[in-house]
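Whiteboard transcription, Tuesday session. T.W. wrote the C-alpha cells on the left side:
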C-alpha cells in the first residue's frame, strides 16, 4: 500500500479500535493525531485524497463536501467505464488529477491558477 494514502479499511479499523467519546487507542494507549479527524472527513465513496492533494486543497483554499466527493467519485466511475487510467476532472472551476484504478485524487488546482495551462500524464478528461 502506498504510504501517501490511508485506505478506507484502515480508517474503519482505526475507528473500531477507538472509543466513540475518547481519542485514545485502547490497544496502544496512544492518542490519535488531530489530523486523523481531517483525513476521515476527506474520505467518502472509496475516493482517497493523497497527502499531496490534501496539501494542495488546503493551500489553494479548495474545500470538498461529501456531496462534492460523491460527484467526483461518479466522474471517476465514468472515466473507468471508458478505460481511462489517469483523468483530469474539472468540477466547479477546480481541476483534479485522479488515478482512476485506485480512485485517488492525486493533486488539485483552481483552473484559473494553473501556471502553464498544460497538463500532462492524463489520458482522459471528465467535465462535471
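and on the right, the sequence the group agreed on:
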Amino acid at each position: 500500500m502506498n504510504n501517501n494514502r490511508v485506505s478506507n479499511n484502515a480508517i474503519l479499523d482505526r475507528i473500531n479500535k477507538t472509543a466513540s467519546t475518547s481519542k485514545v487507542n485502547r490497544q496502544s494507549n496512544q492518542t490519535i493525531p488531530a489530523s486523523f479527524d481531517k483525513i476521515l472527513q476527506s474520505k467518502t465513496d472509496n475516493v482517497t485524497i493523497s497527502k499531496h492533494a490534501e496539501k494542495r486543497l488546503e493551500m489553494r483554499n479548495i474545500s470538498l463536501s461529501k456531496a462534492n466527493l460523491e460527484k467526483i467519485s461518479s466522474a471517476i466511475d465514468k472515466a473507468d467505464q471508458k478505460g481511462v487510467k489517469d483523468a483530469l476532472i474539472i468540477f466547479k472551476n477546480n481541476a483534479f488529477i485522479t488515478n482512476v484504478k485506485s480512485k485517488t485524487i492525486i493533486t488539485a488546482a483552481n483552473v484559473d491558477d494553473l501556471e502553464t495551462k498544460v497538463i500532462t500524464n492524463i489520458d482522459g478528461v471528465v467535465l462535471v
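Someone added at the bottom: The chain has one domain: 8-127.
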